[in-house]
Amino acid sequence: MAHVAKVDAEIGLLARFLQGRKWYGVEWYMTVIGGFIVVFIVVLTLLTFFTPRLAPYDPEGMVGDPFTPPSTQHIFGTDQLGRDIFSRIIYGAQLVLQVALLSAVFSLVVGVPLGLLSGFLGGRLDRSLSLLMDSIYAFPGLILAIALAALLGAGVLNMSIAIAVVYVPIFFRLVRGQVLSIKEELYVEAAQSLGARGRTVLWRYIFPNVIPSIVVVFSLNIADAIITEAALAFIGLGVDPSRPDWGYDIYRGRSELVGGRWWPVTFPGLAIALVALGFSLFGEGLSEILNPRLTET
């Protein structure tokens, strides 16, 4: 009986999931397609950690003639050093997701608490933090990331920090704005009038209502960080050049386009576009679904 009940519950969950197409329309498809891409790239990255022979060739070794065009032996061709491009793309996902996830986590860990405190406490703290974040936000994001990456030096951690600084103001401004709005709600005022401590009001009544927006921005942040990481790697501010890196592979192959060798640039570029698109679709679709105005009839 327990097994039957579990199966019925799973069928019911699947039915509600499929009914989302009627409730949300295009946003449902955006979220599902984006989620599929995200899950695929995350699973692929995890497999490369635990299954060293996942790729057909050593991504850092010479396995064929330089600039071999796509074929049955090398489906994406080889680069200028005779390395298999398909294998490098598979293993390059490790570095791209490492930097993107770390930078998103760093910016979330710093930006969200500061936004909560700034919006809730107000006063001089709010004015000072807002001025600081507006100063950072005033810089073009890519230029600021380039300057910080050049200052900190190469490495996954340094690149993640350089990118994270760019996105801290985004989390801060989002959370601060929502806190300023939520703390005026009646249930928050009621909790305060009943003697609830400020810390309790902030974490029990305000923060849970901010989480959906944080999830959306986090996903979109990863998509933007992937492109920023590729840009830093393209100009030589990435990690060790011997490591598979989509942005650096595009840099190495760009000069071969005039000779008709399009594959060293095309396939890493498509990988960047696909992964960034997946996180963007997931974040945008989730943003629309979590918007309560869409469910109003």
Q: Can you offer a commentary on this structure?
A:
It is elongated and about 75 Å long. It has 10 helices and no strands. The two termini are 39 Å apart. By secondary structure, the chain is mainly α. Residues 1-15 and 293-297 have low confidence and may be disordered. Helix 3 runs antiparallel to helix 8 (198-234). It has helices spanning 2-24, 26-50, 85-121, 123-138, 141-152, 156-182, 186-193, 198-234, 246-253, 263-289. It has one domain: Orthogonal Bundle (MetI-like fold), CATH 1.10.3720.10.
Question: What does the secondary structure layout of this molecule look like, with pairings?
Answer:
Elements: H1 2-24, H2 26-50, H3 85-121, H4 123-138, H5 141-152, H6 156-182, H7 186-193, H8 198-234, H9 246-253, H10 263-289
Quickly describe the structure:
By secondary structure, this protein is mainly alpha-helical. The protein has helices at residues 2-24, 26-50, 85-121, 123-138, 141-152, 156-182, 186-193, 198-234, 246-253, 263-289.
Q: Gyration radius, to the nearest Å?
A: 23 Å
Stated plainly, the CATH topology is called: MetI-like fold
Shape: elongated
Succession of helices and strands: HHHHHHHHHH
Describe the sheet with the most strands.
none
CATH class: Mainly Alpha
The SS-based structural class is: mainly alpha
Classified in CATH, the superfamily is MetI-like
Q: How much of the residues is beta strand, in percent?
A: under 5%
Give the low-pLDDT segments.
Answer: 1-15, 293-297
How many strands appear in the DSSP assignment? 0
State the domain count: 1
Q: How helix-rich are the residues, as a percent range?
A: over 70%
- If you average the pLDDT, what whole number results? 83
| Ends apart, CA distance between termini | 39 Å
CATH architecture assignment name: Orthogonal Bundle
